[in-house]
From TrEMBL:
Chief location bin: membrane
Gene name, Swiss-Prot/TrEMBL: LOC108805164
Pfam families named among the record's database cross-references: LRR_1, LRR_8, LRRNT_2
Matching Gene3D superfamilies: Ribonuclease Inhibitor
Keyword Cell cycle: no
Domain annotation Leucine-rich repeat-containing N-terminal plant-type: ranges: 22-61
Membrane topology designation: Single-pass type I membrane protein
Full protein name: DNA damage-repair/toleration protein DRT100
Family: Belongs to the RLP family.
InterPro entries: DNA_repair-toleration, Leu-rich_rpt, LRR_dom_sf, LRR_N_plant-typ
């Protein structure tokens, strides 16, 4: 009889040791109480005392049994979505109780479409946080001012929300940040002048906001930066030629702004393969200097004030997949041969006096 009691106690202690602590359990239930998910029942599994096992979207550290990861995605291939034949929809707000989960390394509450309220400011007190992904909700208010305290943060994604205010100055203190996605919000103000302090950054996606001012020169000094999307803002001034000297920059989208001046020649022979400068106030000629290093999957210069001929050197580009020079003031003969043989008339329409295939034939002298 005594042996059975001892065995039972040992089993109880073992099971308790692998459960999440009561403080994490309470925090998760308070977090859940602030949300309403009416269709999929993703919180139906959040029962019992052991939140480390079989609680949907919750993962714990295998050694400490503290909650380490909240991963709730409203668009997923998980069977719970396939059975319901729908994507997720959730309302409510992100409770500050999430900040009581002090060992969190990842928070993903993405694509629920109806979650509103502000980002809890206490989230900046989570010292182990590496991922904050809140894309695709209705979250409003500013990015917390002291976001820069999260020195381990590698991913910050608040795209497709209603975030307002300016980019916090402290954001440039995120020394581990690799992926920054602020697209499609209501963010205003300037890009911080010391943006180049983000030395680990590979993607800077800031499109679809109300950001103004110039591109800071420090941004062009970020060696790892491969993808820059500043389209659909109110940026102005000249395009820095140093963008064309960045080592690994492959995508540069500056369309839909108020950039003026001439197109830097450096961009024609750079590492950039997807270049969109359309819908700006660019002037002057399309620069010469195309050559074997010029490889573009997309080259879009449409809706500007470009003048003069299409440069002959463009025929020396190794590849141009999609070219759009329409809605400018270009004039002269369209070069023949690659990369022009596969292009349609829409690529050249609404200029002053371009001629040759695929437009009308040029008049003979």
């Amino acid at each position: 009889m005594k042996l059975n009691v001892v065995v039972s106690l040992l089993l109880l202690l073992a099971s308790t040791a692998t459960c999440c602590p009561p403080s994490d359990h309470r925090a998760l239930l308070a977090f859940r109480a602030a949300l309403h998910e009416p269709y999929l029942g993703i919180f139906n599994s959040w029962t019992g005392q052991d939140c480390c096992h079989n609680w949907y979207g919750v993962s714990c550290d295998s050694l400490t049994h503290r909650v380490a990861d909240i991963n709730l995605r409203g668009e997923s291939e998980d069977p719970i979505f396939e059975r319901a034949h729908r994507t997720g929809y959730m309302t409510g707000h992100i409770s500050p109780a999430i900040c009581d989960l002090t060992r969190l390394s990842a928070i993903t509450i993405a694509d629920w479409k109806g979650i509103s309220g502000e980002i809890p400011t206490c989230i900046t007190r989570l010292p182990f946080l590496r991922t904050l992904d809140l894309i695709g909700n209705q979250i409003s208010g500013p990015i917390p001012n002291d976001i820069g305290r999260l020195h381990r943060l590698a991913v910050l994604n608040v795209a497709d929300n209603r975030i307002s205010g300016s980019i916090p100055k402290s954001l440039t203190s995120l020394s581990s940040l690799m992926h920054l996605d602020l697209r499609n919000n209501l963010i205003s103000g300037l890009i911080p002048s010391d943006f180049g302090r983000l030395t680990m950054l590979s993607r800077a996606l800031l499109s679809g906001n109300r950001i103004t001012g110039r591109i800071p020169e420090s941004l062009t000094k970020i060696y790892r930066l491969a993808d820059v999307d500043l389209s659909g803002n109110q940026l102005y001034g000249p395009i820095p030629p140093s963008l064309g000297r960045m080592a690994v920059l492959a995508t540069l989208n500056l369309d839909g702004n108020k950039f003026s001046g001439e197109i830097p020649q450096t961009l024609m022979t750079s590492s950039v393969m997807n270049l969109n400068l359309s819908r700006n106030l660019l002037q002057g000629k399309i620069p010469e200097g195309f050559g074997p290093r010029s490889y573009f999957t997309v080259l879009d210069l449409s809706y500007n004030n470009l003048k003069g001929p299409i440069p002959r050197s463009i025929s020396g580009a190794s590849f141009i997949g999609h070219l759009d020079l329409s809605h400018n003031h270009l004039c002269g003969r369209i070069p023949v041969g690659s990369p022009f043989s596969h292009l349609e008339a829409a690529s050249f329409m609404y200029n002053d006096c371009l001629c040759g295939k695929p437009l009308r034939a040029c008049l003979k002298n």
